[in-house]
Design a protein that fits this description.
Blueprint lengths: L2 E9 L2 H20 L3 E7 L3 H7 L7 H6 L3 E6 L11 H11 L4 E7 L17 E7 L3 E10 L7 E7 L2 H17 L4 E6 L7 H13 L6 E6 H10 L6 E4 L1 H14 L7 E5 L7 E5 L16 H13 L3 H17 L13 H11 L1
Parallel strand pairs: 1-2, 1-3, 3-12, 5-10, 8-9, 8-10
Antiparallel strand pairs: 4-5, 4-11, 6-7, 11-12
Bound molecules: adenosine-5'-triphosphate and magnesium ion.
Adenosine-5'-triphosphate binds next to α1.
């Protein structure tokens, strides 16, 4: 049976608190369901590591990472370390260097988890957002002139390429085709942003012709924000630019109960470089060290990792165990209204497995 090598960057704050239990859950599920073996390679890269060494990734770090089959990341970010080090030194370069152009973020309303929206049946919200992850509004293009003076000017340029639009849109169509509802919604703001977003629409309308079996539609982002709250059940697969996808997935996480349940994958579909799996939440300095972080977002992210490694039975078993724990409702972390600790939640998942 093949062994997959997993690089683990637990990172800062609650990152290590949720990643170690998630690793234990994966080891437990593999003991039970098999399907392959994993080798965990823990890398200490974090804000603390930066404070000791002056860099967050060592000089041969990207080469080291590239030798792995997948990367499992907790969170990087610390109130006393600038985001130029964490976000712009590790997270964003990883997505670009490893061409992880698909940021996949599922949102599912589990039985037993109350939605802040009224009258939502379990399973009624069931969407996957495909967020473009390498260009768009997060392209590091722009500059600042006359900083701090009355003439201060900032230029922040979004970059949309035909290739970039086409590959994320195609990935979303492929995903929609495999789901029962076969529905895809593209989100733009073409009425106000008449260049990049119009290119996106052009590409969407041309790729659409190759997928007559998929019900494809477009929505402006402001209308989408309303509908994510007003009628989130209409969405199946959603495809959006880097910025819009980022914002809308915080919204989709909230309408399904808690950011503590939101998992994500940063995927390089061609597998030229490793893909990366991480909870949507950050390092949560406000609750770090208290042992109360919800580990389910990290645990569900490992299920996405097992999907990518084609260890499907193990991935499905993790999702089923999480669903069972939530449905039973006895072991819930504080973000879901309970009193259970991080460890207790992870142990309940292992028991359900
Ligand atoms: P980032 O900049 O990395 O996105 P952020 O500042 O947006 O981080 P998070 O770290 O995601 O913030 O935290 C946002 C809020 O959600 C905080 O109040 C935090 O305590 C809460 N939170 C985040 N993750 C969890 C979790 N796993 N369990 C419980 N609460 C969480
Ligand atoms: Mg955030």
């Amino acid at each position: 049976m093949a062994t997959s090598r997993i690089a683990v960057i637990a990172g800062d704050g609650i990152g290590p608190e949720v990643i170690e239990p998630a690793i234990q859950v994966v080891d437990a599920v593999i003991r039970k369901f098999g399907g392959g073996t994993l080798e965990w390679n823990r890398l200490p890269w974090s804000s603390a590591y930066y404070k000791q060494t002056g860099h967050i990734v060592p000089s041969d770090g990207w080469e080291t990472l590239a030798k792995h089959d997948a990367i499992l990341l907790g969170a990087v970010g610390s109130p006393d370390v600038p985001e130029t080090v964490t976000v712009h030194g590790l997270l964003l370069p990883m997505r670009r260097k490893f061409d992880q152009y698909v940021n996949l973020r599922p949102a599912y309303l589990y039985d037993g988890v109350p939605s802040p929206l009224k009258n939502k049946a379990p399973g009624s919200i069931d969407m996957i957002v495909y967020r473009e992850n390498t260009e768009g509004e997060y392209a590091p293009v722009g500059g600042r002139l006359y900083e701090g003076t009355a003439a201060d000017i900032a230029i922040q340029t979004a970059v949309f390429t035909r290739r970039g639009c086409e590959r994320i849109i195609r990935a979303a169509f492929e995903a929609a085709r495999k789901r029962p509802r076969k529905k895809l919604t593209s989100i733009t703001k073409s009425n106000a942003l008449p260049f990049g977003m119009v290119l996106w629409d052009d590409v969407f309308n041309s790729v659409k012709k190759e997928y007559p079996d998929v019900q494809a539609g477009s929505l402006l982002v402001d209308a989408a924000a309303m509908d994510f709250v007003r009628k989130p059940e209409v969405f199946d697969v959603v495809v959006a630019s880097n910025l819009f996808g980022d914002i809308l997935t915080d919204l989709s996480a909230m309408v399904t109960g808690s950011v503590g349940l939101a998992s994500s994958a940063n995927i390089n579909p061609e597998r030229t470089f490793p893909s990366m799996f991480e909870p949507v939440h950050g390092s949560a300095p406000d609750i770090a060290g208290k042992g109360i972080a919800n580990p389910l977002a990290a645990i569900l992210s490992t299920a996405l990792m097992l999907d990518h490694l084609t260890m499907t039975a193990a991935a499905d078993a993790i999702r089923a165990a999480v669903a069972a724990v939530l449905k039973e409702g006895k072991v819930m972390s504080p973000d879901l209204g309970g009193t259970a600790s991080t460890t207790q939640v992870a142990e309940a998942v292992m028991a359900a497995i």
